Amino acid sequence: MREPVCMTQQSHTFVYKMVLRLVMATMGMAVANADPCVEPGICVAPQTKYSVVLPVTPRQQWNIEGGFCGAMSVQTAHLAFGAWISQDLVRKANTHGVGHCEPGNGCELEPTNIGQTAQNLKLDYDVFDHSQPKPQAAAYKSWMKAHLVKGHPVVWLVMTKGEDACPYAGACPDGGAFSHIEPVWGIFSDHPLNDTTVYDDDWVLHSSDQDLQHYYRKFSSIVDTTAMDGNCAKAQDGFGKNEMYPCINDQVDYGLAINGINGSGLPTSLAVDSQDEPDTRMGQRAIEMRGTVTVSSLIVGKGYTIYRYTGTEELPTDGSHDTPSAVKLSFTAGNTTHVYEDPIKISSHSATYYRCFESGTHGNHPEV
After folding, report:
1. Residue 42 pairs with which residues in a beta bridge?
2. Rounded distance, CA 140 to CA 334, Å?
3. N or C: which end of the chain has fewer CB within 10 A?
4. What would the pLDDT profile of 238-288 be if each residue is shown by its tens digit?
5. What SS3 string covers 198-257?
6. Three-state DSSP state, 138
């Protein structure tokens, strides 16, 4: 069996590229996306009539301890809801698994623990039902589309060319297959998005976890058997190439949709100024990142308060958002969208959350 889940042998070019990015990030320099588009992947957005694309960007996973593709995918999804969480802390949110595990440090994300991970991170989530009748590919595409059109990022567990159909004994319940995990955060269609039908010419947007490109795939191209000789026949074999053109299994599939973070208020997203996170498990020093918060669905002239929380354990989920530990910023909306660059940096090895509520609301309130 090959190296598990989302990590195989790294090339010298890959290692050099990662070191260069880390040095640039540490020096506060912007990391330009010079990564080539890996064929047969498509890195140009389709020109469709309708689309929903979440405000996140591709990120680079840690390539140790079996690979942090699942943790990085969940990290990416958090940004769409105004939160940053280290890959280390995502993995520590679970207590069991069949992949790489360390006492106190959690386990690789895979189908047997991805739900527990989401629950312990206080997410509002939906795990795809892999126990339903086979084949599941059509149902999986419908499930994905239903979430993506609502602005819910999806973490898909996919097969990659040249890898084993299942990385560990017991990792693929109900006989499914996967070798990698990636975030999906956009959908494109020439059909109105209130039309729940899955069309072959619908597209999804995902990233590979191993470069900083955006990859676009037609729904008609994402299903294959474990032989990978159909839609994924032309995918390139091997680490740093096969992640860019994965396929879902035709029979049994796995996935996690993230609807939000429990207790959240107005729609809030977060952008950080680094697409790479220093690997603290390898002794690298955490960096301080600039965070830009964007809040939408505001009413012009009304007062609002942005709350910043540190630590998942400190995050309220019952509506009592005005906690003693929260850092607060009040403002009056001059537009329906408000952008705030936080002068307080975000440690890359942290869980940091931003929420926004109408000023004066301190108790229970309807979520937006």
Report:
1. 216
2. 42
3. N
4. 999 999 999 999 999 999 999 999 999 999 999 999 999 999 999 999 999
5. CCCCCEEEECCCCCCCCEEEEHHHCEECCCCCCCCCCCCCCCCCHHHCCEEECCCCEEEE
6. helix
Q: How many CA atoms lie within 13 A of 280 on its CB side?
A: 13
Cis peptide before 366 (omega within 30 of 0): no
- Spatial contact of 184 and 155, defined as CB atoms under 8 Å apart: yes
The CA distance from 104 to 281, in Å, is 13
81, 142 Cβ separation under 8 angstroms: no
Quick one: pLDDT band at residue 163, thresholds 50, 70, 90? very high
Q: How far is CA 304 from CA 294, 296, 333, in A?
A: 13, 11, 7
Contacts 24+ apart (CB under 8 A), 91-97: 91/117, 93/117, 93/120, 93/121, 93/312, 94/120
Q: What's the rounded mean pLDDT across residues 314-320?
A: 89
What does the pLDDT average to over 182-192? 98
Query: pTM to 2 decimals?
Result: 0.92
Report yes or no: 86 and 80 within 8 Å, Cβ to Cβ. no
Contacts of 105 (CB under 8 A, 6+ apart): 88, 91, 92, 281
Contact 125, 143 (CB under 8 A): no
- The amino acid sitting at 226 is T
What is the token pair recorded at 68? 């942090």
Torsion angle (degrees, nearest 10) of CA 83, 89, 93, 97: 130
